[in-house]
TrEMBL record:
Keywords carried by this UniProt record: Hydrolase, Metal-binding, Metalloprotease, Protease, Signal, Zinc
Cofactor: Zn(2+)
One function term, GO molecular function aspect: metallopeptidase activity
EC number: 3.4.24.-
Gene3D superfamilies membership: Metalloproteases ('zincins'), catalytic domain
Signal peptide: 1-25
InterPro entries cross-referenced by the UniProt entry: Mito/Outer_Membr_Metalloprot, Peptidase_M48
Name the UniProt record assigns to this protein: M48 family metalloprotease
Domain of life: Bacteria
Family: Belongs to the peptidase M48 family.
Entry's cofactor comment: Binds 1 zinc ion per subunit.
Amino acid sequence: MKRLFSSNFYVAAFMAAGLMLSSCAKDKNGERLIFSIEDDIALGNQVAAQTDSIYRSKGQLLELNDPRPNVQAAYAQINKIVDKILTSDQVSYAQEFGYEVKIIHDDNTLNAFATPGGHIYVFTGIIKKLDNEDQLAGVLGHEIAHADRRHTSKALERQYGLSVLLSILLGENQNQLVEIGAGLATLKFGRDAETEADFYSVEYLGDTPYTCDGAAEFFKKMQDEQQAGKPPVFLSTHPNDEDRIKAISDKAIADKCVKPVQQSSVSDYQTLKNNLTL
């Protein structure tokens, strides 16, 4: 009996073969990964579009073209922080990924996450919990590291398998794409990935006006929330402990990039929080 194959089968087989061959080469981080940077970007764009759709349907996505001046001002301020982080020569894919930030209006959720290819989502709850731009820079640096070190791609491949991700790249498997978009906020990383993201959050901030231990101050706040019996969503995916906070602080001291928080960082941050009082 003759078996018929769809054209997509051959396309998928061709892509798989190409991906396997590309895994022989190292990326800018010195790692051998099956997914190319172009695949990261393509997958990230699809996942981000689905994630946007999910939060838009809940009325929580603050659109990039929102006509309200306060929302535009909030985006401008956050993008300014991101731009400063991207000046670090430690961000391998600063040009390729672009690192577009989206704000999710949910004051009750303390969370932030990133897609492959550098789409970053920040909940208003976590923004309003922090005290200054330096702390937010620590959070953003951590999430940029997850994308830049390609932790998100690795975690998705582990959880869903290469064949599923290939089918999404082909424009198929819409149900699985919806599941990924809905679950990305709670995607879990391994200890090594978290340690590396912490490490690079310090590295990225070293050449900025911000103190480079901002992530440690952020994690202390999350720890306080947990001890108060209100475990943040962030800690369900980003495990927190004293050793981790100490490691960030120790690296910042060793790198001599601990700086006093400027008053402008505090006052400008209050303006950001005011602009997100909707």
